[in-house]
UniProtKB/TrEMBL annotation:
This is Flavodoxin reductase. The keyword Kinase does not apply. Gene3D superfamilies: 3.10.20.30, Nucleotide-binding domain of ferredoxin-NADP reductase (FNR) module (3.40.50.80), Translation factors (2.40.30.10). Keywords: 2Fe-2S, FAD, Flavoprotein, Iron, Iron-sulfur, Metal-binding, Oxidoreductase. Residues 262-350 form the 2Fe-2S ferredoxin-type domain. It holds the Pfam family Fer2. The keyword Flavoprotein applies. The gene is paaE. Its cofactor is FAD. It comes from Pedobacter quisquiliarum. GO terms for molecular function: 2 iron, 2 sulfur cluster binding; flavin adenine dinucleotide binding; metal ion binding; oxidoreductase activity.
């Protein structure tokens, strides 16, 4: 995996308990796609911890790499970044990654719907800017939900972009404190209305991006599927929520029927490793404990970095926001949330 050393050039407090961090330009340009994230590596009390944060900068501009970090109560890394990080500090990160991406086409005619809630606006903002700058005819509909104007990250910047592209960008806000109850919370009927009223080009060419809490994205996807849009047109990204910042040393027993320890065989970079994985540990955990440096980023089943193929045996996953049913049927698994279900389970990394 490629690692980056990123020096902090600017830190600023933003609405909604968010912190914006901008990095100095690197000697060699860092290539990335709109919607991708950086995974940062921290060493806290001699323990390696990784956290992923979406880039809100756009590869279609000369912007420096920039992320937003929401302060999470009891969140070890978010508190560290908010309270202990300073301009001039150097952070180590894995090269940009993620499949929640937008590929611009200069003269394509399509309608792009961007649904964002809370800090989920971060990768959506990158996608919005990229589409506006690198395409000439696409129409962008941004649907942005938050508690209030005062809590809305990038509110002023988004308004500025709407003024710059009045014919191509339309922003629809939902604020919990809105006096008009219909504009307080995004619901099934509003999603349907927004899509129907703003679909300018061929519906089969439309794209839908959703980023926010899981329930929010599930609601969007269910409605869009009911409107007969294909699953391939609907993209989703999950950002870190408080549950993801839990104590990673917590090995409280989960209610699982199978409490066996199974041998797992890992094929990685022309090497073969054998590990014993107890039921309460994930495959990635045990591999890292044994200094097997396999690729990973989020450790929460949301980024796809550790996706591998199970060729024999079986793997159950605690959580999966990445793999489709078809991929799972073909043996694709996530090691960060995966547990073996049979002895001699064999996995090809990557």
């Amino acid at each position: 995996m490629k690692y980056l050393s990123l020096k902090i050039a600017e830190i600023s407090q933003q609405p909604g308990d968010n912190l914006v961090i901008k990095f100095e330009k690197t000697a060699a340009p860092v290539e990335y796609l709109a919607g991708q994230f950086l995974t940062f590596i921290f060493n806290i009390n001699n323990k390696e911890i990784r956290r992923s944060y979406s880039l809100f900068s756009s590869p279609g501009t000369d912007e420096v790499l920039s992320i937003a970090v929401k302060l999470v109560e009891n969140g070890e890394i978010s508190r560290h970044l908010h309270h202990k990080t300073r301009v001039g500090d150097v952070l180590t990160a894995v090269a940009p990654n993620g499949i929640f991406t937008y590929l611009p086409y200069q003269n394509i005619q399509r309608t792009v719907f961007l649904f964002a809630a809370g800090v989920g606006i971060t990768p959506i903002f990158s996608i919005m800017k990229t589409a506006l700058l690198e395409e000439n005819e696409s129409k962008i509909i941004l649907v942005y939900s938050n508690r209030s104007v005062a809590d809305a990250l990038f509110y002023e910047e988004i308004q500025d972009w709407e003024r710059r592209y009045p014919e191509r960008l339309k922003v629809i806000y939902f604020f919990s404190d809105a006096k008009n109850i219909m504009m307080a919370r995004l619901n099934k009927f509003m999603i349907e209305q927004i899509v129907v009223e703003n679909m300018e080009f061929d519906p089969q060419q439309a794209l839908f991006y959703t980023c926010g809490p899981i329930d929010y994205m599930v609601n969007c996807r269910i409605v869009l599927l009911s409107l007969k849009y294909s699953i391939d047109q609907i993209k989703r990204e999950t950002y870190y929520i408080p549950e993801d910042e839990q104590d990673e040393d917590d090995t409280t027993e989960k209610k699982v029927a199978d409490k066996n320890t199974y041998k797992v065989i890992l094929d990685w970079k022309q090497n073969t490793y054998e590990i014993e994985v107890p039921y309460y540990k994930r495959i990635l955990e045990v591999a890292l404990d044994q200094n097997i440096n396999i690729p990973y980023s989020c450790t929460g089943g949301i980024c796809s970095t550790c996706t591998s193929t199970c060729v024999s045996g079986g793997v159950r996953m605690d959580y999966n926001e990445v793999l489709t049913d078809d991929e799972i049927e073909k043996g694709r698994v996530l090691l960060c949330t995966g547990h073996p279900t049979a002895n001699n389970t064999r996995i090809i990394i990557g």
